Description:
The chain has 386 residues and is α/β, with parallel strands linked by helices. The chain has 15 helices and 13 strands. The strands form four sheets. A six-stranded parallel β-sheet has the order 5-2-1-6-7-8. It is elongated.
Amino acid sequence: MGALSHLKVLDLSRILAGPWASQILGDLGAEVIKVENPEGGDDTRHWGPPYMPDEQGRDTDESAYFMCANRNKRSIRVDMRTAQGQARLRKLATDCDVVIENFKVGGAARYGLDYASLAAINPGIVYCSITGFGQTGPLASRPGYDFLVQAMGGLMSVTGAADGEPGAGPQKVGVALTDIMTGLYAVIGIQAALAEREKSGLGQHVDLALLDVTAATLANQATNYLVGGLNPTRLGNAHPNIVPYQSFVARDGHLIVAVGNDGQFRRYCDVIGAPELAEDTRFLTNRDRVKNRDALAPLLQAKMLERDKDEWIALLEAANVPAGPINTVAEVFAEPQIQARGMQVNVPHPQNSELQLVGNPIKLSRTPVAYRSPPPMLGEHDGDYQ
C-alpha cells in the first residue's frame, strides 16, 4: 500500500501544474479521480505529435504530453456546466480528502465547486487552487501561462547567454518549469494541510500562484538582489556566486566543470596544467575569482581546448573535481545510473503493453511509489463513480 493510499483526490485541473501535483499524489498511493470535459478531455490529450503508438506501431489518440502527467488516475467525463454534472461532483467531493482545481479566479464558484461551497458539505476538505497570479492582488483575474510567468517572474532575465555573446537574449527554460515547480509546491501545501487536519479535523484552502512560485524559486538569484542589491543578469552557463562553475568547450565538444571550493580549484588547475593560476592573487579565493571572472575564464577555456571532453572528465573525476557531459535526453535514459535508479519504467497500457514513462524520483523504504495504472483513456472509468 502506498504512503497516501488512505486518501481520495478529486482532480478538476488540466494542462500541467495541477495534473503534475495529482500524479505525484497518485504515485504515492492516493486514489485520483480525474474529471474531464466530455468534449475532448484535458487539452494536453491533443498536444501532439508525438502520440503513443499502439502494438502495431500506429499512432493512437493518446499524446506523449498527456502521458507525462496523468498515470495512476481514473478518468471520468462530467459536464460541469449542467446542474446534473455539478451535483455529481459535489457528491464525489463529500467523500474526498483533496480537491485540486485550476479555474480562473471565481470560475469554480460559478459551478458551486469553490472552496466555500465544498467545505460547507465536507469541512475536512483540503482544496488546492492553482492560478497564474493567486486569489488576491491586482493581477488575480488574469489568466497565467508558464511561458508568460517565466518572463514576468524574472526567470528568463537570468536564463540565456550574456549580453555581447553569440545568441544573447533572455530564454525560457526548456521545460515548463514554472508549472512543474508549482505542482511540487502544491503537493507540499496539500500534505501540510492534511497533516494539520489530523489535529483540527478541518481542511483549508491552499492558494498557489505560478508567479509566486517563480519568484520563490529564483532562490539565490533573488537573495542576491534582496540582500546584496545586485540585480542579476544572464550569465549563460556560468554561476553568479561561484567561479569556475560553467561549461567549457573541449577539443570535441562541451562539458561542464563545477568547482565548489578553493581546494577543488587548486586541483583543477593542476589537472589542466596551469598550477600557477591557483597561486595568482586575482584567483586565490572564490571571492577573488567571482570578482575577476572575466580575466580567468578565457585562460581556463584556452587550456580546455587541449583535450577531448571524455579525457577531461576522466582526469577531473580522478582528481575529485566535479565535471560531466552535457547529455541529450536520449543519452540521459541510456545512462546506467538512471537505469539503476528506476527512472524509466514500463507502465502497460491497453493499447501498448510496452509503454515507457519517466519514473518518480521519490524513493521510500517501506511504502515505495507504485505504478498501478497507465494514464487513462478519456472516460475510461465513467461507470465507477456515479
